[in-house]
Amino acid sequence: MDSRQLKYFVSVADYGHFTKAAKALRIAQPALSIAIKKFEAQLGLQLFERGDKQISLTQEGKVLYGHAVGILRQMKDAELAMNELIGLEKGEVRLGAPSMMGSYFFPEILMAFKHKYPNLKLTLVDAGTQSIRSMLMNGELDIGVIVNQDVPDDLEVDPLICAEMVAVVGQEHPFANKESIRIEEFLSEELVMFKPGYFHREFVDEASKTHQITPQFSFETNLLPMILNIVKHEYAITALLKLVTDNESDVCAVSFTPKVELDLALAWRKHGYQSIADKTFIEFIKEHSNAQ
Predict the structure, then answer these.
(1) Torsion of Cα atoms, 201 then 207 then 209 then 213, to 10°
(2) CB contact set of 104 (below 8 Å; sequence gap of 6+)
(3) What letter would DSSP give residue 174?
């Protein structure tokens, strides 16, 4: 078997459809079908169950899929390493960060890094920490910000910041003048929250289970500016990192009793290739964070 066969096989498995996979691979659908049939004949195994509208992996196909994804990922890492050595690539950093970190923690760092290393490309992906973990392990991201708790064995972490989670309310809300509130008080209010998968939503969901309270989610959105506008106009309250309210004058931060703090860390694949650009960026973030 060769890398082209594995690439075709993984693409068909991911899309569950020959036509869609062929379009993504930019080849003709009949050519892809023939290539897969030849691959199955070469192996002496049936890899796909072919239905009228969709296909699925056979048990043999599922076994091969895990190996194929790992092989293709290693080949991509090897190609990147060789390109760096011969100077074909200037370097790219693919960073995954939740909205709050992406909007309030990283902009200054990214601009300073780009100023110092103008030839390096930076890509910032906004996602929840659970999605970031998956994208790191799948090789879709190079570096990500995750909660430093129950970290998968496949990831390496380096502590970044300890951030306080606070209740965020409008200036006229009854909580606005309080120094702190209990989580039960917070959960009794109408809430605007990110969708599941983001760390502050996980915090609220866990607190709700612990206190056996059904929260009132009046709004759900992953758009941070919309969440802040809803809070500013007194339609609901939310929970965010204090670094957000430190930069937003139209809302008030109220600490929880007891105080809620999250340890956030930079993470990357433990056994994946780490490029020179990635290493440089990680060191730059650490230096910037220590200087604050």
Answers:
(1) -100
(2) 241, 243, 244, 246, 247
(3) G
Residues 82-123 pLDDT 10s: 766 554 345 788 999 999 999 999 999 999 988 888 878 889
Residue 189 token pair: 């209010």
The secondary structure of 105-130, three-state, reads CHHHHHHHHHHHCCCCEEEEEECCHH
Query: Can you count the helices (H) and strands (E) in the chain?
Result: 12, 11
Looking up tokens 């500016």 gives: 225
Coil, helix or strand at residue 71: helix
Measured distance CA(261)–CA(21) in Å, rounded: 44
- Global pTM reads 0.67
Contact yes or no for 227/204 (Cβ under 8 A): no
| Cis amide prior to 30 (ω within 30 degrees) | no
pLDDT (average), residues 77-83: 72
In angstroms, rounded to a whole number, what is the distance separating the alpha carbons of residues 167 and 252?
8
Length of the chain: 292
Question: How many Cα neighbours within 13 Å face the side chain of 149?
Answer: 11
For 220-259, the pLDDT digits (tens) are 999 999 999 999 999 999 999 999 999 998 999 999 999 9
Containing 154, the helix (H) or strand (E) segment is none
Q: Radius of gyration of the chain from Cα atoms?
A: 23
Cα angle, residue 186 at apex, residues 180 and 192 outer, rounded to 5°: 125
User: pLDDT tens for residues 122-141?
Assistant: 899 999 988 999 999 888 89
φ and ψ at 187, to 5 degrees?
-70, -15
